[in-house]
Amino acid sequence: MAFSSHIFLFYFLPVLLALYHMLPARWLAARNVLLLVAGYVFYAWIDPRLTLLLFGLTVVNYALSRLLAGSSTRRVRLLTTAGAIALDLVVLGIFKYTAFLGESLNSLLRFAGRDTLPILRIVLPVGISFYTFKVISYVVDVYRGRSPAARSLLDFACYVSFFPQLLSGPIQRFGTIDAKGEIVPTFADQLRTRWRTPNTFSHGVALFMLGFAKKILLADGVAQVADAVFAAASPGTLDAWFGALAYSFQLYFDFSAYSEMAIGIGLMFGFDCPRNFDAPYRADSFGGFWRRWHITLSGWLRDYLYIPLGGNRAGTGRTYINLMIVFLLCGLWHGAGWTFIVWGAWHGAWLVVERLLGRRPFYAFLPSPVRVLVTFLLITVGWVIFRAPDLAEAGRMLAIMFVPQSAQGGSTLLSAVIYTRGHLIVMALCAVLVSQPLQGCDWTGRLHWAKVPVLIVLFALALMTMFAQSFRSFLYFQF
Amino acid sequence: MAARRFPCICLTVVFLAMIAVVAVSQIALELRAGGPPQIAELFRQKPTRANLRRLESSLESGCRIGQMVRPWMQLARFVLLEDAGDNAILGRDGWFFYRPAVQYLIEPWSPEGGQTQGNVFDAIISFRDGLAKRGIQLLVMLAPNKASVYPEMLADRAGEHAGPINATTTDIVTRLKQAGVEIVDLFEVYDLAKRRAGSPACYLAQDSHWSPDGMRLAAEAVANRLVDLGWIEKRPTRYETRSARVERHGDVLRMMRVPQVERLFEPQRMDCTQVVDAETGQLYADDPNSPVLVLGDSFLRIFERDEPGSGGFVAHLASNLGFGLSSIVSDGGASTLVRQQLARRPALLRGKTVVVWEFVERDFRFGTEGWQRVPLPPE
Question: Residue B7: is the preceding peptide bond cis (ω within 30°)?
């Protein structure tokens, strides 16, 4: 169920809000049970069979974490942790990477002149990348002794299936917080204590309204441009750049809208969730970008991958290798395909270059706005690789972007599809919004009279637009 | 403190009202209509993925508030943003284009790419061969996409472009010709017509179909080809024509399903010519015993079965040839469905010597049910 769908917005959310707030606030366990049931209904809506996977992962990880918490033997603790992580990764691997591995193997076999193998194609359960990372962070935190094991299966199941975060994050940890991210109470604490006021609820409402408007009015608008350009046979250079920029905007507004809606819904149920974005396209370096983009994933990769690999404590060379490993895996986490791996390598390589230059980009001598622009364009180039169905297509698109040419054949008609008044307005709005520092979370934090009509008009406009256009899912569901 | 709380409360109340009103009003209206609310389906059927998708889709499409808001919102989007919706694209001077037809031209596509069910070459050649075994000749007529003929009405730069707009179509047609399939090249016919100064447009501004003039050119071209090939001998015509003016909004404009937008445009005026039997004065009617069978899609329906009637391609082809024809029309289904209909009606093929098969260019990729091999009806 997507937050911008009819069923969620007009049936699931109002019914759940009513049921939840009808329960007395002191009946916290009952409220948690309700949220657990809601999480499973929410997930089952996509495909009821997927709940078995979610339930299985929850039970096994909970059992292993109890075993871990009850043992003082280092060897047992290590084995249990390794077993839990291996299990989670195997599950993720089976569902997400089987076809990719099969295809890669077949490419090698074809290259060697051998017969290819049949490929097992498994439907990717939406959100699996997110909730496996959540359970891994939990197991590792328990192993490290930074977080107590969940007191009950209910608590843990509630954490894993917390529906605002289930499909696309933010990747909130159970018993710890990301010290470099936004400081919010741990999820475990919030399961036990949720002091809320009407202002907190309305902050959630405001954030949800704003996120919904961003998704419907901006992200879905620029998506039409990106889809048309990336699908065209021979767009011109200007078209290709316009499409690439549209995709950069789409990714940001789609995903940040989802995150804001998730945080907003969390607040309506009394939960604080960490923010995921902080004006990422205002970054003037790749390092800065990753401190602002998908912050909970960056924090996860840092704490559960980069630092365990040795981080920057094992010498300069090792630091570069670690960075590359982290970003190659970051790419692979986003999708099972070589384009994602190359996208990860693109980011990893630029981060290594910045480390080599003393944590500064090679264009650090330029004035700040130009640095921001260069960073944004380099990131956009990365998104082209990220968006393409394969490397050949990515190469074709990049060639069009960098070798000036005009549209050919039927693609000359593209201008009628992409340079419409509506698209030009939305693209201009996106450009203005990505370049200003104020974020939705902050803007909605302090509500006053001037903001209320703005939010109501935006939300109403988005609702009416939703009625008038085809449904478009959130981009990050595919990861 | 209270001053700060009041906007919060106000926003919350408005939000809750906005998300609750849709379901509450829907359920109330459905109960008032005497039926159970649609959402109750959730508890009446097995919650499978397919059932849930079906329910979700019917909730969306059946939403009364949505139905009420949609046309006004689409009107606003059309007027302010020039957004003609999912099916239409607004071109120059009030011309509308059917979006999938434009998509066909913009996107790379290969008939061997596995994107369609069946294979276009296999379907056409096997049909031709099957007919040939019965002594029946096949003439294919490809109706061009409007944007292939008038790209400049959609995008200025397309008009300035030197190369072909529809390279894939050209390639398919060439390959079919190489395989011995007889094809009437309307691209050439329309290109010549466009170059003649002052000649009327071959396509309708608000429609995806040809204009009466475009249709007449196509009928003439097919008739001439049939005669040139020696497959048919022209007979002294038993028909005459009479003028009939039709006014209506085009199908692409109507596909928006927004009467408010339709009202912004004058209905398109079409000067048609109906074909009538010179002896009886009756409007042209198909002859099941004709040696010629015409298969096709809505390009055959327009002016013929629609207003004014008997003024479309089949009637005009008949007028050109001098005798009545048989026809099967399947809207949007000329790639496979029309042949399936033929397979179910064996009588229609009896006594035939020629089949004319019309389909629209975009059907190479988007034809309903793809390009399946369909066995001919038993003799």
Answer: no
- CB–CB contact B4 A447 (8 Å): yes
Q: Which amino acid is at B3?
A: A
Q: Residues of B341-353 as b/e, b for ≥16 C-beta within 10 angstroms? A: bbeeeeebbeebe
The number of beta carbons lying within 10 Å of the beta carbon of residue B357 is: 24
Which amino acid makes up residue A450?
A
* Strands B88-90 and B96-98, bridge-based pairing: antiparallel
- H or E element in which residue A85 lies: helix A74-111
CB A165 within 8 A of CB A130: yes
- Inter-chain CB proximity B15 and A48 less than 8 Å: no
The angle at the Cα of B102, spanning B98 to B105, to the nearest 5 degrees, equals: 150
| Phi/psi of residue B263, nearest 5 degrees | -65, -15
Give the tokens for residue B10.
Answer: 């106000």
Amino acid at residue number B334: A
Chain B residues whose beta carbon lies within 8 Å of the beta carbon of residue A470:
86
Cα separation of the two ends of chain B: 89
- Nearest to residue A141, comparing CAs of A68, A67, A70? A68
pLDDT at B3: 56
Cβ A411–B106 below 8 Å, yes or no?
yes
β-pair partners for B90: B96
The nearest CA of chain A is from the CA of B73 a distance in Å of 6
At residue A194, the pLDDT reads: 84
Contacts of B85 in chain A (CB under 8 A): 468
> Which residue among A203, A294, A334, A347 is the active-site one?
A334
Inspect the interface and report whether the beta carbons of A412 and B157 lie closer than 8 Å. Answer: yes
Residue of A nearest to B154 (CA): A416
Q: CA-CA distance, A252 to A129, in Å (whole number)?
A: 19
Residue labelled with tokens 């149920």 = A269
Q: Cα separation of B91 and B252, whole Å?
A: 12
Number of residues written out for chain B: 379
Neighbours of A259 (CB within 10 A): 28
Asked if residue A98 lies in contact with residue A120, where contact means CB atoms within 8 angstroms, the answer is: yes
Q: Decide the pairing of beta strands B268-277 and B292-296.
A: unpaired
pLDDT at B1 over 60: no
- Computed on alpha carbons and rounded to an integer, the radius of gyration of chain A in Å comes to 23
- The string of pLDDT tens digits covering residues B255-305 is 999 999 999 999 999 999 999 999 899 999 999 999 999 999 999 999 999
A113-122 pLDDT per residue, tens: 888 888 888 8
**At B199, is the pLDDT very low, low, confident or very high (cuts 50, 70, 90)?**
confident
d(CA A48, CA A45): 6
Q: Check pLDDT > 90 for residue B73.
A: yes
> What confidence tens digit (pLDDT) does each residue in A1-56 have?
899 999 999 999 999 999 999 999 889 999 999 999 999 999 999 999 999 999 99
Q: Which residues of chain A have pLDDT under 50?
A: none
Segment A364-396, tens digit of pLDDT: 999 999 999 999 999 999 999 999 999 999 999
User: Does residue A418 contact residue A229 with C-beta atoms inside 8 Å?
Assistant: yes
Check if the beta carbon of residue A444 is closer than 8 Å to that of residue A206: yes
Kindly state the DSSP code that residue A314 receives in the 8-state scheme: S
Quote the CA–CA distance of B128 and B135 in Å, as a whole number: 10
Question: In sequence order, what are the beta bridge partners of B138?
Answer: B355
Place of tokens 């924090």: A299
pLDDT at B2: 55
DSSP code of residue A118: P
pLDDT for position B198: 78
User: Nearest by CB to B108, which of A10, A233, A447?
Assistant: A233
Q: What's the complex ipTM?
A: 0.93
CB < 8 Å to A448, chain B: 4, 7
